[in-house]
Design a protein that fits this description.
Length: 291
């Protein structure tokens, strides 16, 4: 799943290529991906892109039609979605149900992009709105973790009183925007903290360590994503991971074996020596079988 650093990389890439270009086509190939109907997606055609921004993991393409503000194209790539960029948009006809393409958008210089989604579980979401705040997922976002106003004390205030595992807190978009499964693993590894630690139980030193790990991990990932085209962002993310997706490999800090805990539709990775005092966390799938 693309998270804040990769989405910011997409935003910077699109901003540099789309600003001041007019939309010439917007074709929906998977109607389930389109979450709005008013304004219609055809309202984008003829409008000129004025900017591209990020809200959490959402991409927001703003447009203007003449002197009037036109709709925003907002999308969330979910777990298996991605953006495929073309300097010259293909002329092939999109056949709904026969392709992973959910949306195709073209521009007046001949360029364009497809939003694609792999797998059978379709969660990619596209909205055409007058204001990004009309998208429910954006309206409920918590603060951006790299916003200068989101300092250590603001972070501590969010954790206070939450009898929730810290892994879940970091992933909850209504608490902190933009962090997902992969970077929460990386942040907790850098902070030397168990994913099962309760947010409300962290002492001041642990909050300091977690806040520093969060800001440094995300800042490094943002720097790695900056300037890369969409086709390179996924590989850059994988290369930067120290524990996430590296089950069975050696921890780069202590050399212990990176372990996983599996859930219904995802997993977390951690280093026992660095994070849990050597304790191996129970595999949830096996625990269910033993009940």
């Amino acid at each position: 799943m693309p998270e804040m650093p990769e989405v910011q990389g997409l935003v910077e890439f699109l901003r540099g290529r789309l600003t001041d270009h007019a939309v010439t086509r917007a074709t929906v190939a998977n109607i389930a991906a389109l979450k709005t109907y008013d304004p219609p997606i055809t309202a984008l055609v003829g409008a000129t892109v004025t900017g591209v921004e990020r809200h959490g993991k959402f991409v927001d393409i703003a447009t203007r039609d003449g002197d009037d503000t036109a709709p925003h194209l907002v999308f969330h790539l979910a777990k298996a979605g991605w953006l495929r960029w073309y300097d010259a948009l293909p002329s092939t006809v999109i056949r709904p149900g026969k392709t992973p393409i959910a949306l195709r958008v073209g521009f007046d210089d001949g360029s364009g992009f497809d939003l694609t989604e792999a797998g059978t579980k379709k969660s990619l979401a596209v909205s055409v709105v007058s204001d990004p705040a009309e998208v429910p997922g954006i309206a409920r976002l918590g603060p951006d973790p790299l916003d200068p106003a989101f300092d250590r004390d603001a972070f501590a205030a969010l954790l206070a009183g939450r009898r929730t595992q810290i892994k879940g807190v970091l992933r909850d978009q209504s608490i902190i925007a933009g962090v997902g499964n992969a970077y929460s693993d990386e942040i907790l590894h850098a902070a030397k903290m168990s994913p099962y630690a309760l947010a409300a139980g962290l002492d001041e030193a642990e909050i300091d360590r977690l806040y520093q790990a969060m800001t440094e991990t995300l800042a490094e990932a943002l720097a790695a994503a900056s300037g890369k085209p969409p086709a390179d962002l996924k590989d850059a993310k994988r290369r930067g991971m120290r524990v996430h997706g590296r089950r069975g490999e050696a921890c780069p800090v202590c050399g212990d074996e990176v372990r996983s805990v599996f859930f219904a539709d995802n997993s977390l990775e951690y280093c026992p020596t660095c994070q849990t005092g050597g304790k191996i966390l129970a595999d949830r799938r096996l625990s269910r079988l033993l009940k």
